[in-house]
Sequence to fold (278 residues):
Amino acid sequence: MRYKIFIHAAAAFVAVVFLAPLAWLVIASVSEPRDLLARPLHWIPEHPTWSRYDAIANSDGSDVAGLFRQSMGNSVIVALGTVAVSMVIGVLGGYALARLRFRFRRSTMVAFLIAYMLPPIALLIPLYLVLTQLQLLDSKIGLIVVYTSFTTPFVLWIMTNQFLSLPVELEEAARVDGCSRLGALLRVVLPVARPGLFATMMFTFLMSWDEFLYALIFTATPEAKTVPVAIAEFTGRYSADFGLVAAGGVLATLPPVLLALAFQRYVVDGLAAASVKG
Fold:
C-alpha cells in the first residue's frame, strides 16, 4: 500500500514538474501585458484575451502573426515530407539489411550509424554547398533533403533491428502461399512491425519539427522558414509582446502533442495485434 502511494505521489510530482511550464505558457498567451508585468504576479489572468490567437489565425500575412502562421504550414510540409521519404527508404533498406545476406552488410549498418552520430555543425558547410549547387537554398524541398540526410540513418537503424526481432517463419509462410518478397513485407511484416513503425514515424516527425540549426542557416524568407526560426525571431525583434511569444509556443507544441496522443493509440493496437499474430 505504501509503495502504491509513493508511486502515485512520484508520478504526480513528475507530471507537475513537466506540465507546469506548459501551463504557464498557456496562461501567458491569454494574459494582458499588464497581468504579465504585475507584481505580485497574476497566476490567473483577470481579463483573459484570445486576441493573439485570433491575430495568428486571421492575419493577412504581412505582420509577425501572419508570418508565424505561414511558418507553421512550412513546418508541417517539411516534417511530413521528411517522414515520407525517410520511412520509404528506411523500411526498404532496413528489411534488406535484416533479411538479405551480402558483402559489407555489417559495415553498411555501422556506416549509417556513424553518419547519424556526426554533429550537425560538422555537416553544415558541405550541405550548404550541395544545396547551392542544386539551387535548393531557401526552399522547403531543400530542408526536406537536408532533414532526410540525418533522419534516414536513424530510421534505417531502428527498422533493421525491428525486422531482426521478428520471426522469419512468417515471411516464409507467406512466400509459400505465393507472395513475393515485397508482398510478404507489405502484407505480413509491416502489420506485425506496427509498434516500431509508428514509433519511428513519430520520432522522425519530432526530429524534423524541432530542428533549428539547419532551418536557420538554409532559409531566409517566410516562404521557407519553419516554426523554430519564427519563434527565435519573436524573441529577437518582437520581445515586447511576451503573450504573442507564448501563443506561438503553445501552437508550436500542439502538433507534436496531438501526434504523440494519436500514435500512442496506434502503438498499443500494434502491440496487441503483434501479440495475437505471434
Observations:
- DSSP finds 13 helices and no strands in the chain.
- Residues 270-278 have pLDDT under 50 and may be disordered.
